[in-house]
Amino acid sequence: MSREEPAPTGWVLPDPALGEPGEEVLGVGADLEPGTLLAAYRSGLFPMPLDRAGPLGWWSPDPRGVLPLDGLRVTRSLRKSCRRFTTTVDTAFEEVMRACGDPRRPSGWITEQFVQAYVELHRLGWAHSVETRTAEGDLVGGLYGVEIGGLFAGESMFSRERDASKVALVALVDALVAAPGPGRLLDVQWCTDHLATLGVVEVDRLDYLELLDAALALPPAFTAPEGRRSGG
């Protein structure tokens, strides 16, 4: 999948390096145009509404949740699930995102505005999905995120069967590990109790920005043709 650089943003986004320690929301407003989104991720920000119907916020959590690629914890039961399912890449981006944004999920924040914005980012080659499928090809889990250079900014995941979202995460980590160049950064925004069991750790904002700067200099991992399938 080729990448198309969009028109640059017309907004001046906040500099996370200037944020107060522990502060999370550094700006409010702007838009979700592709150029704005890419500028935000490149600077260490990501968008999320302040509440489901509220204004658009630009977030830079301190500390930040990241998953070291050599730190993913794969249990014996998860390994069995990885053999039970098949994963694909970029075969159902919008479907994955809409499943992640199901309004029945608690704390849902993915509005139609976000779906349309990230579908366009996917069309331009900057956003990707990993799908978990049954042997019959049914979509039962997945995740999506934004990749710029060696940064993969994970946005959300969903699961309709046990371990299905975790299987997608394992496939994502495998793809990033296989890509050339050390220093790739898998950003998961916050370190929740659940993510901590998978190996996610917290890093201070300034440390995150240093990791981000190094990662952005790397080539992207997801350059394979759309619709790639991996083993089950």
TrEMBL record:
Alphabetical keyword list: Acyltransferase, Cytoplasm, Transferase
Subcellular location(s) per record: Cytoplasm
InterPro entries found in the cross-reference section: Acyl_CoA_acyltransferase, Leu/Phe-tRNA_Trfase, Leu/Phe-tRNA_Trfase_C, Leu/Phe-tRNA_Trfase_N
Broad class of enzyme this protein falls into: transferase
MF GO annotations: leucyl-tRNA--protein transferase activity
SUPFAM superfamilies to which the protein is assigned, alphabetical: Acyl-CoA N-acyltransferases (Nat)
Catalytic activity, EC: 2.3.2.6
Superkingdom as given in the UniProt entry: Bacteria
Principal place of residence: cytoplasm
Reactions performed catalytically: N-terminal L-arginyl-[protein] + L-leucyl-tRNA(Leu) = N-terminal L-leucyl-L-arginyl-[protein] + tRNA(Leu) + H(+); L-phenylalanyl-tRNA(Phe) + an N-terminal L-alpha-aminoacyl-[protein] = an N-terminal L-phenylalanyl-L-alpha-aminoacyl-[protein] + tRNA(Phe); N-terminal L-lysyl-[protein] + L-leucyl-tRNA(Leu) = N-terminal L-leucyl-L-lysyl-[protein] + tRNA(Leu) + H(+)
Family membership noted in the UniProt record: Belongs to the L/F-transferase family.
Function: Functions in the N-end rule pathway of protein degradation where it conjugates Leu, Phe and, less efficiently, Met from aminoacyl-tRNAs to the N-termini of proteins containing an N-terminal arginine or lysine.
Name the record gives this protein: Leucyl/phenylalanyl-tRNA--protein transferase
The organism of origin for this protein: Longivirga aurantiaca
Gene for this chain: aat
